Amino acid sequence: MATLKLSPLAPAQFPHITPVPGVELGAYAAGLRYKSRPDIMMAVLAEGTSAAGVFTRSKAPAAPVDWCKAALDATGGKARVVVCNAGNANAFTGEKGAKATHDIATDASEVIGCDINEVMVASTGVIGVPLNTAPFRKAMERMKDGLSAGLWKEAASAIMTTDTFPKGASRVAEVDGKPVVISGFTKGSGMIAPDMATMLGFIFTNANVSPGCLQSILSEVTDRSFNSITVDGDTSTNDCVLAFATGVHANSDTISDPADPRLEDFRAKFEEIAVDLAQQIVKDGEGATKFVTITIEGAEDDAAARKIGLSVANSPLVKTAIAGEDANWGRIVAAVGKAGEKADRDKLMIWIGGQLVAHKGAVHPRYSEEETSAHMKGQYIDLRVDVGGIGTGKATVWTCDLTYEYIRINGDYRS
């Protein structure tokens, strides 16, 4: 496997994470694929914790995805344990994959002392290789002995594959006059394209909300965060974001309506965390050197705007032009045109770094190539497109450039 360099867009340090009442974490180096680093994470949750999930729409989902969906259905949205491993996706492994997931869940339920359906299982790594579950029992027993409310960086590091830095975020919201914590971590670097979002993510809170309420908030927020990122246009088999609400030391009565005004600040902070984590994935895109924000306006509706934005974000020609610091705005025009959504060629407007480049179906008469080129040399690139005032639809998506390093990383991923 290629030696990975720290992304130039990486944060200076792992953020401060506020512990979530009712959540304890562990990490363990089991040697599943990586040497001398944690590769299994476990989170143990308070009894009665509400759980929710969003999952890949891939027609070839991994065994852990099937397991989590079934477990959430069986419990009505409850969980006590999360187990996640890195290095092996346990995907496209047939009956062996289903058995491996069941075995992991069985061991976790026995080690922690809960119903097997209260165990959420996730995996990430190489596809098509049977997962050796022999190390899991010992790993979970060791992690149980060392559980801590503060091991957020260790847990985030344990689920990394081609990631070059662990990704975490934390906020404190107010619900019914009481502070509640929302903290989470995620992994993702390559095979990133919206279809839920190609990644694994875990968000925890001590808010006292019902499973249905949590599911509604998670599903809504996902579209504006994890489903609005792309690195390479490829969707994985293991995508999932799981959310958990312990209800420990929080608002006294359980809130079941996601539209309850008491949840206004909670919903806003929950979305902030999801966007923060999603953007960190893009900043760690394989081979990335530039973080790109694409805003689409004037589309028929928000869904059309997002589709157009992703057409631009997934265009190899746009992404390589950004990597080469070439202000080739004609490629943006082409990407808008191929999206299949309504657009008015003769009213289309494009801004790069705040400068109006294209206007009334042609280059703007005061366009400065020098000014735009200067913006393209920076690490943070801003593109904005009005597709011609078709409607009021608007969306923002995030991507990165496409470099030679992406090919190097993926050319020998299994070696």
Unreliable residue runs: none
Cα separation of the termini: 5 Å
Radius of gyration, whole Å = 22 Å
Shape: globular
Overall pLDDT level: 93
Q: Please count the helical segments.
A: 11
What is the H/E order? EEEHEHEHHEEEHEHEHHHEEEHEEH
Number of strands: 15
Give me the secondary-structure category.
Answer: alpha+beta
Which percent band covers the strand fraction? 15-25%
- Please give the share of residues in helix: 25-40%
Strand order of the largest sheet: 13-12-11-14-10-15
Characteristic terms for this protein:
alpha+beta, 11 helices, globular
Describe this structure as you would to a colleague:
The structure is a single chain. The chain has 415 residues and is of the alpha+beta class. It has 11 helices and 15 strands. The strands form 3 sheets. The protein has a 6-stranded mixed beta sheet with strand order 13-12-11-14-10-15. Strands 3-9-8-7-6 form a 5-stranded mixed beta sheet, with helices on both faces. Helix 2 (94-112) runs parallel beside helix 3 (134-145), helix 5 crosses helix 6 and helix 7 crosses helix 9. The longest helix has 20 residues, at 264-283. The mean pLDDT is 93.
